[in-house]
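Tokens for chain A. Residues wanted.
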């Protein structure tokens, strides 16, 4: 339906990697990718603020994935 912001799920996965699987470096990359996307001003409707760019939940996930690819390269 495109309603649920994927950021919580993505960050929960990062926590799982860090604390359950001792994959802290990978978790840090995911967390940084999320931060970079938010720092770029991208927001889904549920966290939209003035002056930010509204995108869909699908686009949010895609942007985090693209940012993660950049960081991991």
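Reply:
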């Amino acid at each position: 339906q495109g309603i649920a912001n994927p950021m919580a799920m993505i960050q929960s996965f990062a926590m799982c990697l860090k604390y359950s699987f001792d994959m802290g470096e990978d978790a840090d990359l995911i967390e940084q990718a999320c931060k970079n996307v938010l720092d770029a001003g991208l927001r889904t409707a549920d966290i939209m603020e003035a002056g930010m760019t509204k995108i869909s939940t699908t686009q949010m996930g895609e942007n985090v994935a693209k940012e993660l690819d950049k960081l991991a390269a």
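Residues 44 and 59 are 9 Å apart (CA to CA). The first helix runs from residue 7 to 20.
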